[in-house]
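I am still getting used to backbone structure tokens and would like to learn alongside you. Label the sequence line and the structure token line clearly, so we can match residues to local backbone shapes. Would you write everything just below, so we can both look at the same thing?
***
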Amino acid sequence: MNKFFQLLFLCFLISSITMAQKSDVKVQKSDVKAQQILKGVSEKYRSYKSVQADFVLKVENGQNNSKDQQTGTLFMKGNKYKLQINNQEIISDNNTVWTYLKDANEVQINSYESDDNTISPSQIFTLYEKNFLYAFSEEKTIGGKVIQFIDLTPNDKSKPYFKVRLAVDKIAKAVQSAVVFDKNGNRYTYEIMKLIPDPRISDNFFSFDEKKYPGVEVVDLR
């Protein structure tokens, strides 16, 4: 799994948690019903101080019809996050970003920078509001739950993906999945298997302690 789609997953999970009400001008360009649904999701998740989300990533390759599946966990507290997937961890305390490669026992250290590739709740709020249009697609009952589907399309047509479909549990007001459709015919489906609100997480959890990883190779790119 490349870094782009790791960050993309964070994008859509965090945006579902942090998105606030849009301006009237934006509503005219997007779908009012979709806005109301996402506003309900936002109001619920914004009350949480921290979140733990266990997810499954399913990758469907449109060129050779191959499929792959991975599991991971995302922890968030304010602007801090830790993403655990496969044999790596990406950790940020909003000042530094550590990428730990388990197989190589190597950690790469970068400074946190506020740009288009940086993930934080405040950045995602701006990204979501300015760079996407959203529209209600349909409503289905799946597994006894009423699921509402919302399609997101990027304003920037140079993006490698052309659509993202969110599935929202109508009663729980929770995002169940996000499907990313890229221009090469691939699909990346992120299913939220379990979400734990307000887990007890210390601030130290969002930093990399070299003492806990004997022999780790440190590559400082700051």
Remarks:
- The chain has four helices and twelve strands.
